[in-house]
Amino acid sequence: MTGRPLRVAIVGAGPAGIYTADALMKSDTEVSIDLYERLPAPFGLIRYGVAPDHPRIKGIITALHKVLDRPQVRLFGNTEYGTDISLDDLRTFYDAVIFSTGANTDRALDIPGIELGGSHGAADFVSWYDGHPDVPRTWPLDAEKVAVLGVGNVALDVARILAKTADELLPTEIPPNVYQGLTQNKAVEVHVFGRRGPAQAKFTPLELRELDHSATIEVVVDPEDIDYDEGSEQARRQSKQVDMVANTLEQWAIRDIGHRPHKLLLHFFESPAEILGENGRVVGLRTERTQLDGSGNVKGTGVFREWPVRAVYRAVGYLSQDLPKLPFDERAGVVPNEAGRVLIDEDAIAAARYLPGVYVTGWIKRGPIGLIGHTKGDANETVACLLDDTAHLSGAAEPDPGAVTAFLANKGIPFTTWQGWYRLDAHERALGADEGRERVKVVERASMLRTSLG
To answer: Whole-structure pTM over 0.90, yes or no?
Structure first.
């Protein structure tokens, strides 16, 4: 590697991958970085995982843009790891490979009835309303009463999109098929269920308060669900965010219920026990009432209640998918690693424990927890390990940046570039300008490619 930049491939061009590129460029090491993304457009979770009515979070793209504008970085979009390019291929062209593939499927929820028609994973719904190119263009929205299982920000996003009107969301970047689908939405009651109490909810305060900003959504909290034990009070004392969430919920619990047409009801101490069905379709949800045990955890009371909902969305966490040629912990949903170094065998000694020159960062490294900004710490840790290892890396056999470009071209892979993103971005903004909106997202992969490839 003497006399040339360190060649690094990053697989996954979402926030985790782009933050990793930024950390590499801020080091004292001269680097040359290629980002690989299976979708034609970059930005991952920001583009395809954040609700369209959250422009504040989508503003993170501005910071990510500045990283990808740097001359040390190239983007290879529409290029899938394991299909278009393998680990052996990447090792041929790069000194090190970092995987930042995130988590894009739903964690399982093992209760009876989960397989019924009308039982959905939140990740699938999010992909639909965010215009992901690889999911169906329609979504069934014929249930008047809907349940959302989970008390994190994704659950709030799902509940809010279900409770809002299509016209409220029209000023956002939602594509035409999503707007048309939402005009048919029959939901007037959206019930959000958490098995523990207000002090254990995983909402962020701002996300929670935003529920109450819609002129069409009445947020309802049952006063009987406001309860704390010593563990809960300790959590409030130790975290300003926990205390702010609890205070907001308390205020909503004591106010009079208004007359906005759509009700969004937040339920605590209700543990999902079974999804009820008839003729293969959801007709209800059975929950068990829980109570605090003193530590902030809960135990069942043996008291059950049935809710006459006709659709259930589980928002109990995302799950990463295994990657070809890498070890995978199915239970934790991560690539086994130590500070980002991929572990071959946890019982082996020293360097023999690690897959040489291969690293992970983001949710594939630590699991799908924390906010987008938390991936910066992951990136810094992984990059520090990589840079410590540079003296021991075997080095790329074909490090010339043109070698991988020729390889992909010879395979006939229509890869997109950073310049292609600028063309797609300008096209989406033009579509939006015609309707008085900031942008209209292009959904079809073929259309994205036509625009990006020029």
So the answer is: yes
